[in-house]
Amino acid sequence: MLQSLAGCSCVRLVERHRSAWCFAFLVLGYLLYLVFGAVVFSSVELPYEDLLRQELRKLKRRFLEEHECLSEQQLEQFLRRVLEASNYGVSVLGNASGNWNWDFTSALFFASTVLSTTGYGHTVPLSDGGKAFCIIYSVIGIPFTLLFLTAVVQRIIVYVTRRPVLYFHIRWGFSKQIVAIIHAVILGFVTVSCFFFIPAAVFSVMEDDWNFLESFYFCFISLSTIGLGDYVPGEGYNQKFRELYKIGITCYLLLGLIAMLVVLETFCELRELKRFRKMFYVKKDKEEDQVHIVEHDQLSFSSISDQAASMKEDEKANEPFVTVQPATSYDGCINN
């Protein structure tokens, strides 16, 4: 009997703090995922790094043997200066001297990567004034970009996601949850095709030294705003229509980022994902809310009723795929 009582108390304890246990497992899972990624990347990339280091040592030794008049210290000073310039996007190679990093189209591309927080790192401000302006420009521009993207996605998702799902639910009587899942999968497939596979094929043709995998890698790294900077289009020697090409890439990044946000918002509105997310959130205590309301004696009955009505409206707005428009228009379509 004592064991059963202890078991019941343990069950009640776990149920009472279920959100905290789920959050603890979430943190542990995230840390394990970080360690897993570090182990895989280290095991895969470390041998290639070792081979590259050995190759550079051989090239350096061979170069010094062929040019005995040049000391190793002079060579290292020259290489150090070249690498510093390369970090700022300036190359001393003959096949790269024709491309300017700060013409209008390149600066427009740089501004788009800053505001979208992609930040390839291949081009950075050289002057102190440019660095100071970049800080001020980013402080204002990044929240402005978030506001812009939120407003655009909020309008697009009404026509792309909510209305189509509601139409199939009302017009054909399908389950809203099933329609929402099928719609999210189809929308994700279309987005991946239009903003990953097709652009990857285009980049593999436009960029001479890129294959399809490298092009797809660039699309994913860019639209996920990771922006490693190891692959940047339009930086090749004698790139055809470079200005127009840079503007096209800028438009592609903005449109692709909007499409990715629309897909993510569509999946986040699925009821199953909402339930899964709530497992890790802190639950509100209803008793504390009631005590908080009672303690505020200055609140009038009308203000409390208005607050309750606004809470009901917020709950309805948070439900998946709910539109503000009444369903009479769809009823008219059914009668017709």
Automatic annotation (TrEMBL):
The chain crosses the membrane at residues 21-44, 135-157, 178-203, 215-232, 244-264. This is Potassium channel subfamily K member. Pfam families: Ion_trans_2. It comes from Platysternon megacephalum. The keyword DNA damage does not apply. Its main location: membrane. It comes from the Eukaryota. Keywords: Cell membrane, Cell projection, Cytoplasmic vesicle, Disulfide bond, Endosome, Glycoprotein, Ion channel, Ion transport, Isopeptide bond, Membrane, Potassium, Potassium channel, Potassium transport, Synapse, Transmembrane, Transmembrane helix, Transport, Ubl conjugation.
